[in-house]
Amino acid sequence: MSQDTTREIPLPESRRADVVGRLAATVDRLRAQVRHGHDATAARGLVELATGVLVERLRCGPSAAAAQLAELAEQAGRTRVELAAEIVDEAARDELAEAARWSATAEDGVSLRLRTAESGALAAHDVQAVAESLLRHALAPLGAVGVAVWSAGGDSSLTLAGCAGFAADEGGRWRYVPPGVAVPARAALVKRDVEWVSSLAAAGVPSIGERDVPTGARAALPASTGGRILGVLEVCWPHPVAELAPRAWRQLAALAQLCAHSLDSPVAELAPGEDAQLCDLADSLRDPALVLRPHHDGAGRVVDFRIAHVNPRYSDLGGRPRGEVVGALLLEAYPLAAVDGGLFERVEHVFATGEAFRADRVDLTALVGQVPLTAALGVGISRVGAAVLLVWHTEDEATRLANLLQHAQRLGRIGGFEENLATGEIAWNNELFALYGLPASAKPVPVEQLARHAHPDDAVLIGRFLRTLLHHNRPASTAFRLRRSDGVARHIRVIAEPVPGPSPAVRGAYQDISAQHWTEVALAATREQLAHSEQQAVESTKLTLQLQHAIMPPAQNTLSTPSLDVAVRYRPAEKDHLIGGDWYDAVVLPSSQILLCVGDIAGHGIEAATSMVVLRNALRGLAATGAGPSQLLTWLNLVTRHLTDHVTATAVCALFDPSDNTLRWARAGHLPPVLVQGSTATTLPLITGPLLGGLANPTYDEATLHLTPTDTLLLYTDGLIERKDRTVEESLARLLTTAARTTSTLDQRLDRLLTHSNSDTDDDTCIVGVQLRTP
């Protein structure tokens, strides 16, 4: 026996590198030969097209036309291919020719590039070769590095028909884009317009070639023909681009139309037999159906749809016979369908994109004797080949009312029933099964067994309900607590009535009133709590008023001394809850001096009233020491800080000495007193004095005033002048004007001040008026 001793001889690394290099060079050479062959084929095709044009124009044979083309090219100093491109442009007058003429002069070679790309596409055996021809001849001169041709599906999906300029595995990765994926090509398909992305990375959208040129610009253009968008042309640039020049857009639009012709297939058009099948399909539908075919203008644009067929169930909204509608244009039969967002726009979109449309309501208006009649239609629109199938249905009144009733029962949580008492047959709707917590396949509960599913405490109520309904044959209603099998308890109201007829029956409805019941319980508890709170508030207000009136009665009060007349007015707040802490005092001290003071506690209510009592009584006791006004306020500040519940207050404190008719006074954050002399009223100069309770060691200045028999001194709280819409200075000016008016007595002056006060804060008000007593 012989043994095969053949074995692989290992090659050195240098030999292996040489072999790989030669193989790569061979592949590059073969690719270049293929490209050269494609270019030669495209050029030959372009020359043949030009030759055919010359044959028709010169009415000569092919040989003579070819010779004439060569002679004209030699005379013009052009190549045969360049001249052929110009001749084809002149004869075609299509989008490519328009793009070439609009873009630049013939020296730029735009016409040659576009026509060469067209020839390559026409000679290509598949869309992949079309993409390669477009990139090499037309798009690379525009700076593009990649191109993808997408085929559009009827559901707005995209299938990659061909691509060039991208990595070898990109075609497999992007073979199919499902509906709903946001890519530039799908945006152009849905919008039926150009989608421009200046930078793919900045836009944050994915697309083919994103790994190689992630920041490049993208242009996606719908590829349409005859009103149908068959796909999308997507072009890729290596770097971000702000915007393309108008001439570049013209060229891209022409190339997109060239792609549409490459994607177009004879299968898209219905054969005669298939057309009959579509009509048979429409006739088999239970709803009205129309078969529509596109109607184009002279430029090939879809401007309307012709009604090619209607099925036997079709009923015209205007009452026209079927024969009058068949053959008419859609906008002639229903002109108001062209309203924005109307039926025509839906049909046009479906025909263009192939994306089916379904809607429960689309308004369609028909003119009946020049009177518009609008109907709400449920619509389905689909593209079948080069035709559109439109199916609609209208809801009759009974169906519409039944739907409304069903929605009302669902919203009101109402379940209806009907029971034949003789046969035991019971009909429940779906909502009633849900109320009982039972599946739709469960056996309904007879009305006589209602007590078995209710709370035992409701047995008496249910018994009365059944006696009225079944024994007395009268309508009845009651409310009870339903105990469901799942352990949930619901509050239910049942209403039922006898059904007249030969067989005894009842019908009625159950309603879940649990939310209403618990709302009523919560409202009752809230009312009880509010009543308790109101009673507490009334008692607190009553106590505060009693305390306030005990210290400062609102009635007029006048103090007479041998040398001084003192009049006081106190006006409480109109609203009880605004009871404040305004206070005053006028008392003859053991030293024969007269203490005059007014003050205002910050805040309202019982706390302000009690703090007012503390400060007023403290000042009386401190004044008996014989100290001056500034010292009294210093001590009163300590009382405010340490003997009250952290309140703050303002005050004016004055001591009148009858021996020389002088008045010493100090203030703690309070408004200055007003001095009236004859017909002139002025405020006393402000002296330093912070409010009570604000600082630990404040300083209070003191001033002296000599009173004459014609003087009137007024001390008051801010409730007399304060307004929300004016400054303090403006309010003081108004007070001075009122105070300056001449009156016969001190009481009249104070009454006038209260009467003409225009304060709007509804605060307490205190006024103390002082005049020397005349002998």
Automatic annotation (TrEMBL):
SMART domains given in the database record: ANTAR, PP2C_SIG
Keywords carried by this UniProt record: Hydrolase
Positions of the ANTAR domain: 27-88
GO MF: phosphatase activity; RNA binding
Protein name per UniProt: Transcription antitermination regulator
